[in-house]
């Protein structure tokens, strides 16, 4: 017997929890696991919304059968083709050969490319509807939230928005499913880490999509994502949070990140951090870029309005782990932050040049002084670091 969970009389969660995968997309740590959410609408016609990762197909199929009994699946609606959701499509087609696979024109391209499926499909366009008997589903194409083929499906009877990756988060579902069954504060960091790592690059599209949904759907009664909680009690909360993050709206606080081989750049960073504290900043995050996984650093940078980046030079260039962070922030179009930078070197410069180049690529407000230190930091250099902390603190406080 496999447990499904009811969202409403005829809508069931049939997702699975993944506590075995260490790195999502082979990049992002999953210390709390992740869920792949799929839903069955058991109306006159039976529709599935998305599937689950291939590793969990057997469990998933049993869950579906447990809900629908002897009935067949009529439609498999594919909101998103990334394999964490599409991985079980082939098996579902084998189990239900008559099932129509529903998606938009771009979905079909992915469907053939990933799984060689070209038959038994139904191509829908933006705004199209599909009647299942007592309810009608409406489709909203939402390209680039997170891939080009992504779309959302709205159940007009039960007012459930099946949103794909949007409004999702890291963290498996440990017995609970709904927002009103947990302490949301506990989940905020893992949800924001998911947003900033996976969706953050597409913030402007997410914002545009949310604006459209707000305009076109009178009442979203429930938000059912592909990852994490189903928002039943307060769907507006997660929509508002996603909208805020998509526009890079932040809170007062400073993330200080340093790359240091022998501790000299670390001392500079710690001096900046102490100064921030003495100058009234209560939220300070200090990270060694070599030792803190980048996904957590990006998460905090998405939360706060100040960043200070300091790096040593390595083989005439910036320290490689710092380069990874800079590239990741550039690709996410970081903007609207108070920014401080400092570099260090022993026998050749390089780090500070790259940090200055980073400043040119992101739309952030650079705060003086820009500092470069040779060998161990002198008293004069540390005084400048203290001044940098003072100036960053002052800008951060006037920012909000
Ligand atoms: Fe959860 Fe973009 O896949």
Automatic annotation (TrEMBL):
One matching Pfam family: ODP
InterPro entries in UniProt: Flavodoxin/NO_synth, Flavodoxin_CS, Flavoprotein-like_sf, Metallo-B-lactamas, ODP_dom, RibonucZ/Hydroxyglut_hydro, Rubredoxin-O_OxRdtase
Top-rank taxon: Bacteria
Boundaries of every Flavodoxin-like domain copy: 254-393
GO molecular function, one term: FMN binding
Family membership noted in the UniProt record: In the N-terminal section; belongs to the zinc metallo-hydrolase group 3 family.
Protein name listed in UniProt: Flavorubredoxin
Organism: Halanaerobium kushneri
Taxonomic lineage: Bacteria, Bacillati, Bacillota, Clostridia, Halanaerobiales
């Amino acid at each position: 017997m496999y447990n499904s969970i009811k969202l409403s009389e005829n809508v069931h969660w049939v997702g699975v929890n993944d506590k075995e995968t260490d790195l999502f997309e082979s990049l992002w740590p999953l210390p709390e696991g992740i869920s792949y959410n799929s839903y069955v609408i058991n109306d006159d016609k039976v529709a599935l919304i998305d599937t689950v990762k291939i590793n969990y197909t057997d469990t998933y199929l049993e869950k579906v059968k447990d809900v629908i009994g002897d009935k067949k699946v009529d439609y498999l609606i594919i909101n998103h083709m990334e394999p964490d959701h599409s991985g079980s499509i082939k098996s579902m087609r084998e189990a239900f050969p008559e099932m129509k696979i529903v998606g938009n024109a771009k979905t079909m391209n992915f469907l053939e490319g990933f799984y060689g499926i070209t038959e038994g499909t139904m191509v829908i366009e933006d705004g199209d509807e599909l009647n299942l008997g007592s309810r009608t589903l409406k489709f909203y194409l939402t390209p680039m939230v997170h891939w080009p083929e992504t779309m959302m499906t709205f159940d007009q009877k039960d007012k459930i928005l099946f949103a794909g990756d949007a409004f999702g988060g890291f963290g498996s579902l440990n017995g609970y499913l709904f927002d009103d069954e947990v302490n949301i504060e506990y989940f905020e960091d893992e949800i924001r880490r998911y947003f900033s790592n996976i969706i953050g690059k597409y913030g402007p599209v997410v914002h545009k999509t949310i604006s459209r949904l707000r305009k076109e759907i009178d009442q979203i009664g429930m938000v059912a994502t592909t990852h994490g909680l189903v928002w039943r009690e307060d769907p507006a909360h997660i929509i508002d949070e996603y909208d805020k993050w998509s526009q890079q709206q932040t809170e007062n606080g400073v993330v200080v990140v340093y790359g240091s081989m022998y501790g000299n750049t670390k001392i500079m960073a710690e001096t900046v951090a102490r100064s921030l504290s003495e100058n009234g900043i209560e939220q300070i995050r200090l990270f060694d870029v070599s030792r803190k996984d980048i996904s957590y650093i990006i998460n905090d940078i998405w939360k706060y309005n100040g960043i200070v980046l300091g790096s040593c030079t390595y083989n005439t260039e910036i320290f490689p782990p710092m380069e990874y962070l800079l590239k990741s922030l550039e690709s996410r179009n970081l903007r609207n932050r108070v920014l401080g930078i400092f570099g260090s070197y022993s026998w050749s410069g390089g780090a500070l040049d790259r940090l200055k180049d980073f400043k040119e690529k992101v739309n952030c407000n650079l705060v003086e002084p820009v500092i470069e230190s040779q060998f161990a930091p002198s008293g004069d250099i540390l005084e400048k670091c203290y001044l940098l902390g003072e100036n960053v603190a002052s800008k951060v406080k006037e920012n909000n």
